[in-house]
Amino acid sequence: MKEKISALRENFRARLSAAQTPEQLEEVRVSFLGKKGPVSDLMAELRNVEGEQKARLGQLINEAKAEFAKAITAAGETLRQKALEAQIAHAKPFNPTLPAHLNCGSFHPITLIQREVESIFASMGFTVEDYPEVVDDYHCFEALNIPKHHPARDMQDTYYLDNGQLLKTHTSAAQNHIMRKYGAPLRAIFPGRCFRNEATDACHENTFFQMEGIMIDEDISISNLIYFMKKMLSEVFRRDIRVRLRPGFFPFVEPGFELDISCLICGGDGCPSCKNSGWLELCPCGMIHPNVLKAGGIDTDKYTGFAFGLGLTRLAMMKYGIGDIRDFNAGQLKSLSQFESR
Ligand code: DAH
Asked: What is the pLDDT of residues 284-323, one digit of tens each?
């Protein structure tokens, strides 16, 4: 049996030195130390040996077993080291003078236009306010002079939640809260994501962005509204933009208007983009209805104000020449990566 053990050791060393890959090494481990391997066989044979010899041979077998395990671990380590060295040898030389990897994503066009409009209004003394996307009926409708069962509610198909709240259908929903928060005089803009339950096509989305603005002070008139809108739009489009107002109905303003801008393509001469009218519809607005001011706790004998609900998504489409509104939420990295990254 003693000879058998030394033969096994020799055999093991030969097989171990032939193993060149982790897989081959594993084979050696299984074939020598596995349950059906020669070490287990020797242990079984040992049962037939008696007395002192049993102890001596048992020790020899255990020593061989320990030697095998240790050698396999060491060989594994050597193989790993060799693989690492080979990897390093084949790697491209490291050049510390190369510029850092700058592939760092880009801003969404809505973020860009939102920041731009915010900074223009901020420079004219407007604060920028945030408001939740889940709102209650009072703020979205009631406080805006849209009482229950008023036909104006049919204008917007609303996503109602089980708890009676709703996803805000327009940024006007924040007007009451902001009037109550600051009182008059007041200049604020509040951008936000809006939701309407409607079928989508190139011009309609169920999720889009608006930028609402209100200004309340003594003697505020329509000419103030025109001045601020013209100024903001001329800065956004980096050219002089002409605006015009047409009558429009919204329960929370009186009078209410649709604000059009001179066509960006033809400059007002008429082209297919503006259906030959020379004008593009951009932003509903008006003088804040006294009921809305009252609901906001504003003294209507002293103060008046204007409000506008700029379609931020629409503005981004115009500024960046994006033809399909669905592109904004489509996660198309190729088109998004064209926008500024810093
Ligand atoms: N909230 C209106 C909508 O989304 C838009 C609007 C119209 C906002 C007139 C205003 C306004 O502030 O004065 O349909």
From this structure: 999 999 999 999 999 999 999 999 999 999 899 888 888 8
Which of these, 54, 55, 16, 48, lies nearest to 32 by C-alpha position?
Answer: 16
97 domain residue, yes or no: no
Number of DSSP helices (H) and strands (E) in the chain, helices first: 11, 9
Ligand 1 neighbourhood includes 308 CB (under 6 angstroms):
yes
> Where in the sequence is the domain holding 58, given as residue range(s)?
2-89
Separation between Cα atoms, residue 173 and residue 135, nearest integer Å: 8
For a mutational test of ligand 1's pocket, the pick from 252, 259, 287, 292, i.e. the residue with the most ligand atoms closer than 8 A to its C-beta, is 252
225 lines ligand 1 (CB under 6 A): no
Asked if residue 98 is part of any domain, the answer here is no
pTM assigned to the model: 0.70
Same domain, 45 and 129: no
Q: For the chain, percent helix, then strand, then coil, each to nearest 5?
A: 45, 20, 35
Strand residue runs (E) in 124-185: 127-128, 134-135, 166-167
What 3-state class would DSSP assign to 193? Answer: strand
Domain count, the chain: 2
Question: Looking at the structure, do residues 220 and 309 belong to the same domain, yes or no?
Answer: yes
